[in-house]
Each structure stands twice: as C-alpha cells, then as structure tokens.
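Last lecture ended with a question: if I hand you only a sequence, what can you say about the shape of the protein? Today we answer it with a concrete record. The protein is DUF4044 domain-containing protein. Below, first the input exactly as provided, then the predicted structure, then a couple of comments.
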Amino acid sequence: MNKRWFKIVIYVTLGVMLISTLFMSLGSLLQ
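The predicted structure:
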C-alpha cells in the first residue's frame, strides 16, 4: 500500500466525519 493512498484514505475519513457532524448539527437545529 502506497503512502499516498494512506494519506488519501485518512483525508477521506476525516472529511466524512466532519460532514456527518455538520449534518447532525444542522438536523438538530432544524428540528
């Protein structure tokens, strides 16, 4: 496994976590 792929996977997981938390906060605000 290349280091570049490892970096991409880490960035993707971090982005998904950020987006999910943003959507959860938005949902709680809308409710």
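Comments.
1. Helices lie at 3-30.
2. The mean pLDDT is 94.
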